[in-house]
Amino acid sequence: MHPMEAGIIVIDIGMTNKKIALYDENLVQQDAVYKNFTPVMVKDSRGNDVPAHDLAGMEEWFSSQIRTFALKYPVRAIAVSCHGATFVCVGKDGNPCAPCVFYTYEPGEDFQKAFYERCGSAEELQKATHTPKFSSMINMAKGIFFLQNEFADDFAKTDIILNYPQYWAYRLTKKACYETTFLSCHTYLWNQNSHEWSSVVDALGIRDKLPASYMQTFGKLGNITKEAAERLSLSEDVVVAAGIHDSNASLLPYLAVNSGEDFILNSTGTWCVAMHPASDKNRTAVCGADDIGKVVFFNRSALDFPVKTAIFLGGMEVDFYVRLFRKINKKDDGYFPCSDMESVRKVLAEKRIFVLPELVSGSGQFPNFRGGIHCDGKFYPASQLESLEDVPAVLKDEKEFYAALVISCVIQSETAFVRAQLSEKTAIFTEGGFRKNALYNTLLASVLCKNEVCTTSLKEATALGGAMTALMALSGKNLNDFAPLISIEKNPVGPENADGYESYKKIWLEKGESK
């Protein structure tokens, strides 16, 4: 048994990685295990293959890993952190009764049109719920509508619809609740300012299938059941927190350490998520005229105040173009291109090469753009680049190619920050995958030369945020009590000469808007 007072288990569920982490009472991670799960393919009513989450496989793995931790550590509390846009339909027997479909699945234009005809226009819904229109089923209400239409018999067996973190907490406690970090994250189901279910709930006819109990994110949902205790080799006095959305979990350590400061957390990965907590703890979310129709929305912090948020698929774009570069130049899988500010300035000055979003149409800060590369007056759509039949010459020039890709990421980041209400007093903290990208950070600091720009080092911020909620549920402590336990290393990034950026960006925008 490890010499600690309280072991905190975090079940941290990302789209790619699933993780079980173990923290001590001082919020120091002592152990972690990881696993990827392939989707389970299910057939919809039309015979289409639809990817769904392997809930049974995940639960089996979670259980075996928790049993292993239970032998080594004095486990006292459990928290669950999950990616967004996902829910589970649970039948009267307490088990899933319908597939837990991947939010990345796109049912098509007819489906999208039918949803808005049923639930109201995208513009009106964004004004009311502070949720933008997404493609696929990234708006969770669309996932419910999809099951109603394509898996009607399964959906009819639903006793309760649970948000993803709350489903896993339910499996441990047999108690159902909703909490607002998940519910407020582009679901269409929640009116933030009035703190009540939205009109979409009634348009879908699901009010009687939603949990009746509201729980604060760091509240104690309950203790694990006798059956769960036996299955997991744990004591029945283990406390389970309500569950939290992963982006909000990663924000929580920053809220503890930077209480009252004006900052944007630039959380970078597959999705780049710019989160700007209301520095005055203003509890009113307001979508400005320029926000409507853009991928701008309000998250809700674990302390239940609005966090203006703008997102784009930056990591996905970098991965796509780097894979393409490797393929064309016959580089091995571990090879990563590099460039420098001199090449950036050359690309900015010559204005010949433009890497344009969006790889997933309708996403990001430029939802009407068509993803691809504009090179020497010709446009090469991303959808056709993978065939390698017709590729721009720049893909053979490592420095220029990578410089143009980084410039595109910085334009998208800057746009996201402005839409999240960046001011000259707002500090930028970049964490996640782009933290290690020196060229991205230098150019970002050069473009935002009036702002403090830092990279931050915080090991597994999402799991840490989850652990904080469990420790709060267990101890009753406040968020600020944890500030002395959290060390966020801030590395200031200095600006360099980025002449030509504004004039380049103007043409970049024109190229994108002309597609």
Sum this structure up briefly.
With 515 residues, the protein is of the alpha+beta class. It is 35% helix and 21% strand. The chain is built from 17 helices and 23 strands.
Cα end-to-end separation: 62 Å
Total helical segments: 17
**What oligomeric state do these chains adopt?**
single chain
Q: Which bin fits the share of residues in helices?
A: 25-40%
Explain the overall architecture.
- With 515 residues, the chain is of the alpha+beta class.
- The chain is 35% helix and 21% strand.
- The strands form 6 sheets. Strands 1, 2, 3, 6, 11, 12 and 13 form a 7-stranded mixed beta sheet that branches.
- The longest helix is centred in the last third of the chain and has 22 residues, at 398-419.
- The protein starts with 6 loop residues before the first strand and ends with a helix.
Annotation keywords:
single chain, about 525 residues, alpha+beta, 7-stranded mixed beta sheet, 17 helices, globular
Give the helix/strand layout.
Layout: E1 7-13, E2 17-23, E3 29-36, E4 40-43, E5 49-52, H1 55-72, E6 75-82, E7 87-90, H2 109-119, H3 122-129, H4 140-150, H5 152-156, E8 160-163, H6 164-173, H7 180-183, E9 190-191, E10 196-197, H8 199-203, E11 220-223, H9 226-232, E12 239-241, E13 244-245, H10 246-257, E14 263-268, E15 272-277, E16 296-300, E17 306-312, H11 314-329, H12 341-350, E18 353-356, E19 372-375, E20 378-381, H13 382-385, H14 398-419, E21 427-432, H15 438-447, E22 453-457, H16 461-475, E23 489-492, H17 501-513
Parallel strand pairs: 1-6, 6-12, 6-13, 14-21, 21-22
Antiparallel strand pairs: 1-2, 2-3, 4-5, 7-8, 9-10, 11-12, 14-15, 15-17, 16-17, 18-19, 19-20, 22-23
